[in-house]
Design brief:
Helices cover about 40% and strands about 15% of the residues. It has helices at about 25-35, 40-50, 65-90, 100, 105-115, 130-140, 170-180, 210-225, 230-235, 240-250, 255-270, 280-285, 300-305, 330-340, 355-360, and strands at about 10-15, 40, 90-95, 120-125, 160-165, 200, 210, 275, 290-295, 315, 345-350, 365-370, 385, 390-395, 400-405. The chain folds into 3 domains: about 5-180, 3-Layer(aba) Sandwich (Rossmann fold); about 190-210 and about 275-405, HAD superfamily/HAD-like (Rossmann fold, 3-Layer(aba) Sandwich), CATH 3.40.50.1000; about 210-270. α13 (about 300-305) links the parallel β9 (about 290-295) and β10. By secondary structure, the chain is of the alpha/beta class. α1 (about 25-35) packs across α7 (about 170-180), α8 packs across α11 (about 255-270) and α10 crosses α11. It has 15 helices and 15 strands. The protein is globular, with a radius of gyration of 24 Å. The strands form 4 sheets. Strands 10-9-6-11-12-13 form a 6-stranded parallel β-sheet. Strands 2-3-1-4-5 form a 5-stranded parallel β-sheet, with helices on both faces. It is an enzyme of class 3 (hydrolase). It comes from Prauserella sediminis. Its EC number is 3.1.3.23.
Length: about 425
């Protein structure tokens, strides 16, 4: 998808999702990041409607008999305002459930026609109804008591970028901006691009497969089942599950916890997707010149790779292969040993501070992958990238290397 600043065509970004999905928060982050006006359906219409409850409407405006009529009027106001804002500012971020619009048909046509000639890029926050209900209960908004009960919604029938509601607003904004073509510039003069290596070693989660939301979902379920603090995994990304469970469970229950989290993560694996460019980059590398190094178990790693359509290479180091996991250097040293090369002659691609620390301790050069943690947490990496599609493989008798793809050192215009 093209960003507004890369073309002369106006751009409107719609942020959709059920109540409690976090669309307003994401909309604010996106508007700030894009420098775009924010048009939120609730901000535009709710203050007026709330004042009409009582003097004009005996029932709340979200309840029958006026609910459908008011819904149409609210979206008419949003469309009219968006038409003026996009025509004058050239861009806007629109926030609303967009339930009818996502189904296609008349509501979608009315929205796109109102915004024309602007390009409309729809973002949809997806998640379980239980998650949204829990969030609504936590915010305590009076209008939520008048909403009908949630049911699992159908997938949007219109073109859209799906984003997991479990992610932080920063992680969500990163994925949307990348989909819009707002890429992070790469420093082409980084010394790591001038060196040949004997092998390239990739972390799996967050580097080859976008599994962050799946991990969060699985650990939240485990936290509820075993009474573990739910923020555990967010504060320890990249570390082996056994190390995390040992912090919060008696020694006699760690094995039970390991079986449970493995089952949860394997069951949720079909939801993960490929990180942009993973297939193409791996296909360009000789199988004897790269390996995968993950803190997950073999079952979890293979399930996620399979979901992303990636075939594991002969060298796959998992949590079951080492005594000490990341940030200890053992996993990367073992991968180098299995490939028959020195760790100092390896280039590692990692997304987590624990993984970067492990690679550094092993003597490897490191490319940091953005999208899981803030850039400031990966400062010890040699260079940062926002997708594997930003890198090109070079291979000859001197070794293998990764270099920026043409244009990768340019940000949004």
């Amino acid at each position: 998808m093209a960003s507004h600043c890369q073309t002369a065509r106006p751009l409107a970004v719609g942020v959709s999702g059920p109540a409690g999905s976090g669309k307003t928060t994401l909309g604010r982050h996106l508007a700030a990041a894009l420098g775009a006006p924010l048009l939120d359906l609730d901000s535009l219409t709710t203050p007026l409607l709330d004042r009409m409850h009582g003097p004009v409407f005996a029932e709340h405006w979200l309840a029958p008999p006026h609910r459908d009529t008011i819904r149409d009027a609210r979206y008419a106001a949003l469309r009219a305002t968006a038409t003026d804002v996009v025509a004058t500012a050239g861009t806007a971020v629109l926030v609303a459930p967009f339930t009818a619009e996502l189904a296609g048909g008349r509501a979608w046509r009315e929205l796109t026609e109102a915004l024309a000639p602007a390009e409309l890029q729809m973002v949809h926050l997806r998640g379980a109804p239980e998650l949204f209900a829990r969030r609504r209960a936590g915010r305590g908004a009076a209008r939520d008591s008048h909403r009908p009960a949630d049911s699992p919604s159908a997938a949007p029938a219109v073109p859209h970028t799906g984003v997991d509601a479990e992610l932080t607003p920063q992680q969500q904004c990163f994925r949307v901006r990348r989909a819009l073509g707002h890429r992070v510039p790469i420093n082409p003069d980084a010394p790591v691009f001038d060196r040949p290596f004997d092998a390239v070693l990739f972390d799996v989660d967050g580097v080859l497969v976008d599994s962050t939301a799946s991990v969060l979902r699985s650990w939240e379920r485990l936290a509820g089942d075993l009474d573990i603090p739910p923020a555990t995994v967010e504060q320890n990304h990249g570390r082996p599950a056994r190390a995390l469970l040992s912090q919060f469970l008696p020694a006699a229950r760690v094995a039970e916890g390991m079986r449970h989290i493995e089952r949860l993560e394997v069951d949720d694996a079909p939801t993960v997707t490929e990180v942009p460019g993973a297939h193409a980059l791996l296909d360009a590398l000789p199988a004897t010149r790269y390996g995968l190094v993950t803190s997950g178990t073999p079952a979890i790693a293979r399930a996620r790779l399979a979901a992303a359509g990636i075939t594991p290479p002969p060298v796959l180091v998992t949590a079951d292969d080492v005594h000490a996991g990341k940030p200890d250097p053992e996993p990367y040293r073992l991968a180098a040993q299995r490939l028959g090369v020195a760790p100092e002659r390896c280039l590692v691609v990692e997304d987590a501070p624990a993984g970067v620390a492990a690679a550094r301790a092993a003597g490897c050069a490191v490319i940091g992958m953005l999208g899981t943690v803030a850039p400031g947490e990966l400062t010890t990496a040699d260079v940062l990238v926002d997708g594997l599609d930003r890198l090109t493989v070079s291979a000859d008798e001197a070794g293998v290397g990764l270099t920026p793809t043409p244009g990768a050192n340019s940000g949004p215009g």
